[in-house]
Amino acid sequence: MPCPVRPEPLKNKASLFFTFFVKRNSWLSGLFERSYVMKTGRVKLPGIEIVIASELPLVKKIMIDEVENYPKNNLLHTLLEPLLGESIFTSNGCQWRKQRDLMNPAFARARVSEVFSLMQQACDDMLMRFSKINQQNNIRDMDAEMTFVTADIIFRTIMTTKLEPDAAEKITAAFTRFQHQSLRITMLRLFNIPLALFGFKERQRKDAAQEIRDTLEGLIRPRYDAISQGDDKEWTDILSTLLNTIDPETNERFSFKEIVDQVAMLFLAGHETSASALSWAFYLLAEYPEIQQQAFKEIQETVGDRKIKKEDIKKLTFITAIFRETLRLYPPVGFMAREAKEEVTLRDKIVAKGKTVIVSPWLIHRNKDNWQKPHEFDPQRFLQPHDTPLKSKYLPFGMGQRLCVGASFAMQEAILIIASLLQQYRIEAVSGFEPKPVGRLTIRSENGINIRIIKR
Question: Considering the domain boundaries, does residue 5 fall inside one?
Answer without folding.
Answer: no
